[in-house]
Specification:
Layout lengths: L10 E6 L3 H12 L2 E6 L4 H7 L1 E5 L3 E5 L3 E3 L2 H4 L8 E4 L10 H5 L9 E5 L6 H7 L5 E14 L2 E14 L12 H17 L4 E3 L4 H20 L5 H5 L2 H20 L7 H11 L8 H7 L6 H15 L4 H22 L1
Parallel strand pairs: 1-2, 1-6, 2-5, 3-9, 6-7, 7-8, 9-10
Antiparallel strand pairs: 3-4, 8-9
Helix pairs in contact: 7-9, 7-11, 7-13, 9-12, 12-13
Length: 338
């Protein structure tokens, strides 16, 4: 299915992290007349020669080819022509790699806007600290998508996304005004909208990050620590559902202490929404565990636990799950080395 490109001006985008999320959203930006350079690692040969094979209930089915495919960020950089946007869709794995060093070769101009489409809380601070001269945008997305085979992407159900600039006193205040940063968030949102993405510009993305974390830190962590159960199986046991609710309650407590008070009704709402997932759902953390890949433990559990300690908040369920996940992750990494 061929799509007519948007009439918006052509914009240079570097995608770092060409997994399922990166493939879907860079595809939609290409439809909106963005020139996409995709940095691929494990799927490089497949994407370079054949592109992405995408099956999407929202956007349709298509063979999507980024305009340029490279193995590294350094290969993608042309000093005479900096990127307008560097969009990071990698997993948040600080014990494996430093995302600031990963993207550094591409940040050759203060006019390049950095965009994080990643899970967890507390993820913007390292980037804002290293690149204070650049506008930093942060995106939270709710979407059911996975790379079920190399270069083969499946997306089902609805999707919606929120975006804002990152609020931080060390992040480009002298270089960029509040109005300029808001304008940049609206500009990128207009490209996504032209590509059919449901996206809202919000004042502060952290509330959305905490809201998503209420689900992620509970269901994802318990799916792994319970021995590899999908949501359908977890919902069958009343004691497990109670544990999930208590864990979500821990997240709500930390969020409130951090300045983001979310309604308690979110707990039951998430339980009911999860019941509606046809055939059950395997969170990406569980898929990573099953494949022997490192899991996003720090951004999803470690950072909230650290914030809780700093605020003097007791979070026994989050703390326990965090400890167990670290042990499972370390064992997986040892087995992978053998």
């Amino acid at each position: 299915m061929e799509e007519t490109k948007s009439s918006l001006p052509s914009t240079k985008v570097l995608l770092v992290g060409a997994g399922a999320i990166g493939a879907i959203y860079s595809w939609r930006l290409q439809v909106a007349n963005c020139h996409i350079t995709a940095v691929c690692r494990s799927n490089y040969e497949r994407v370079r020669t054949q592109g992405f094979e995408i099956y999407s209930t929202k956007f349709g089915d298509l063979n999507y080819r980024p305009d340029i495919v490279t193995r590294t960020v350094t290969e993608a950089v042309t000093e005479s022509s900096p990127f307008d946007f560097v969009i990071v869709c990698t997993k948040v794995l600080p014990n494996i790699f430093d995302v600031t060093e990963l993207i550094r070769p591409a940040i050759i101009s203060s006019k390049t806007t950095i965009v994080l489409i990643q899970n967890g809380v507390g993820i913007e601070i390292p980037v804002a600290t290293q690149f204070p001269q650049n506008i930093l945008l942060s995106i939270v997305t709710w979407i059911g998508v996975g790379q079920l085979d190399i270069g083969v992407i499946h997306q089902r159900g609805p999707e919606f996304t929120k975006i804002s600039y990152f609020h931080d006193k060390n992040q480009g205040e002298a270089q960029w005004s509040k109005e300029e940063k808001e304008e940049m968030a609206n500009t990128l949102a207009s490209f996504f909208k032209a590509g059919g993405v449901q996206i809202d510009v919000v004042d502060d993305i952290q509330a959305a990050r905490w809201e998503k974390l209420v689900w992620n830190a509970s269901w994802s962590a318990i799916s792994v620590t319970s021995g590899g159960n999908d949501t359908h199986t977890l919902l069958k046991d009343s004691l497990t559902v109670e544990l999930i609710k208590l864990t979500m309650g821990d997240v709500l407590k930390v969020a409130k202490a951090d300045g983001y008070e979310l309604p308690d009704s979110l707990i039951d709402r998430y339980v009911e929404l999860t019941r509606k997932l046809e055939g059950g759902h395997k969170p990406s953390m569980l898929l990573d565990c099953e494949r022997g890949n490192p899991m996003e433990i720090e951004a999803i559990l470690g950072n909230p636990v650290q914030i809780a300690k700093e605020k003097g908040i007791e979070v026994p369920y989050l703390q326990t799950l965090y400890t167990l996940l670290k042990l499972i992750d370390e064992k997986n990494m040892r087995n992978k080395i053998k």
